[in-house]
Write a structure and sequence with these properties.
It contains 11 helices and 14 strands. The protein has 2 domains: 192 residues, Rossmann fold (3-Layer(aba) Sandwich); 118 residues, NAD(P)-binding Rossmann-like Domain (Rossmann fold, 3-Layer(aba) Sandwich), CATH 3.40.50.720. With 320 residues, it is α/β, with parallel strands linked by helices. Helix 1 links the parallel strand 1 and strand 2. Strands 3-2-1-4-5-7 form a 6-stranded parallel β-sheet, sandwiched between helices. A 3-stranded parallel β-sheet has the order 6-8-12. The longest helix is centred in the first third of the chain and has 20 residues. The structure holds (3R)-3-hydroxy-L-norvaline. (3R)-3-hydroxy-L-norvaline binds next to strand 9.
């Protein structure tokens, strides 16, 4: 356990970063926290630096200037955007990881969190229960980069003892920040439409069932794994973590239990093929056994809180 955490979150203004910054302050109130993103935006009471995660020199400058010992590397192009810009997706997702792993290898930082995703699985992975170790033949650049990244994390740990930790996020649903470029992002957009009383056209088919998670659970898993004693971690690939799975029609029905007039229609696009390549359920028994992972939110809880929080924002948007 690091006594004084001096933390750099790269991608602090993204869908996960936005929530993670506040959660870090709550979990480690004495830590020193720096947020970094490509886009200039100051959204909290922490040091902010504008940073291109692909530039090793810039990264090392920030790590040295603020004596950072812990890095959360969240910058990435997600599955849908990555298919539109495959070279950039590979460059960003991999170069940023190599820079951070090398800084850890060379002793500049002590601990790294790097997110993976259920996107590492592919159409040959058993759909109804993707095991921790199973066939991974991803069909997206994003998934390829995440699986390759996991293997590099494992290599840097075995070769140099780098303390890098990772989880495979399912689709994440939160109310504080809009997502960007994900195949699962319909599950966030749908709530914004529902609270505005508008109908929603879904870019996936009604039965496209995927593993999903409420953002508070994902953020808690991200922080909890960082405090686990190293000897309890049986892998340095990314851990499967799960909560619940649903299809667009199941999510719409759950929303309609609160908003009976809500209407959904379906217009599957290229993202449907991506969704079909992913499993519907993941087996997270290793994370539960190794470090006590346990989701706290079920589908109904998530729907209720999402609607409540977004309606509150509608009433007083200034609260952010
Ligand atoms: C995406 N939200 O859709 C991401 C996620 C499970 C997929 O990694 O690309």
């Amino acid at each position: 356990m690091l006594n004084e955490r001096r933390i750099l979150v790269i991608g602090s203004e993204g869908q996960i970063g936005t929530e993670l910054m506040w959660a870090i302050g709550n979990r480690w109130p004495d830590c020193f926290l720096v947020g970094a993103d490509l886009k200039q935006k100051q959204s909290g009471a922490w040091v902010f630096v504008q940073l291109d995660a692909m530039r090793a020199g810039e990264l090392l400058e920030v790590v040295s200037e603020y004596r950072i010992n812990t890095v959360f590397l969240l910058a990435a192009l997600l599955s849908a955007t990555g298919e539109q810009a495959p070279d950039l997706a590979w460059e960003l997702n991999m170069q940023s990881l190599f820079h951070v792993l090398k800084m850890a290898r060379d002793g500049y930082i002590r601990q790294v969190f790097w997110p993976s995703s259920i996107a590492v699985f592919g159409p040959t992975t058993p759909r109804d229960n993707a095991a921790q170790s199973t066939v991974c033949e991803p069909r997206t650049v994003y998934g390829i980069s995440k699986y390759a990244g996991e293997l590099w994390c494992q290599w840097y740990h075995q070769k140099f003892g780098v303390d890098v930790r990772s989880v495979r996020y399912p689709g994440l649903i939160g109310y504080n920040a809009l997502p960007g470029g994900g195949t699962t992002d319909y599950a966030v957009d749908i709530f914004h439409k529902a609270v505005r009383g508008e109908s929603f056209t879904c870019f996936l088919a009604p039965d496209a069932r995927l593993p999903m998670m409420f953002m508070p659970d994902a953020v808690r898993a991200t922080l909890e794994i960082m405090d686990v004693p190293a000897e309890r971690l049986s892998t340095r690939m990314a851990y499967n973590i799960g909560a619940f799975s649903f299809s667009p029609q199941e999510l719409a029905a759950a929303i309609q239990r609160h908003k009976p007039d809500f209407q959904i229609s379906y217009a599957p696009d290229y993202r449907q093929k991506i969704a079909e390549s992913w499993p519907a359920v993941v087996d997270d028994s290793l994370a539960r056994a190794d470090w006590g992972w346990q989701p706290e939110y079920e589908l109904e809880d998530m729907v209720r809180v999402m609607l409540w929080e977004l309606e509150k924002k509608q009433v007083s948007p200034s609260e952010g």
